[in-house]
């Protein structure tokens, strides 16, 4: 987002109205601030928009977005990691033919893997006393 604002010549607006050139006319400052604000809002998803809908200035909007998505908090990292793995797994989904009868489970091509998985599950249940 910051790169997009830089391309449009609006990146200085992120630092606040006071950081714009002193000799710049007030109308020009207003225009830059409005364009930056609308550029950011137009690139946000509905979920993110809901979280920042009460912000009225570019500075407050940018600070809110940074606090929500740029922090290195544990919950944020876990959320991002979950999304990353969710994307990876969704790309790897392959239609798997599940066995429909007991004979296929016991004599099928993956019977040894299923037997190992079942014994591990039973062992875990006994270990956890469940």
Could you walk me through the main structural features you see in this protein, from its secondary elements to its overall organization?
This protein is mostly helical and 130 residues long. It folds into two domains: 2-91, no CATH class; 98-127, no CATH class. Helices cover 65% and strands 0% of the residues. The chain contains seven helices and no strands. The longest helix is centred in the middle third of the chain and has 19 residues, at 74-92. The radius of gyration is 27 Å and the shape is elongated. It holds the Pfam family Retrotran_gag_2.
Describe the protein's topology.
Blueprint: H1 2-7, H2 26-42, H3 46-52, H4 58-69, H5 74-92, H6 102-107, H7 111-127
Total helices: the number is 7
Number of domains: 2
Radius of gyration: 27 Å
Distance between the first and last residues' Cα: 50 Å
Q: Which structural category fits the helices and strands?
A: mainly alpha
Q: How much helix, percentage-wise, in residues?
A: 55-70%
What is the mean predicted local confidence, pLDDT? 76
- Tell how many strands the DSSP assignment holds: 0
Beta-strand level of the residues, as a percent range? under 5%
Q: Which parts are unreliable, with pLDDT below 50 for 5 consecutive residues or more? A: none
* H and E order: HHHHHHH
Can you summarize the main beta sheet? none
User: What is the approximate shape?
Assistant: elongated
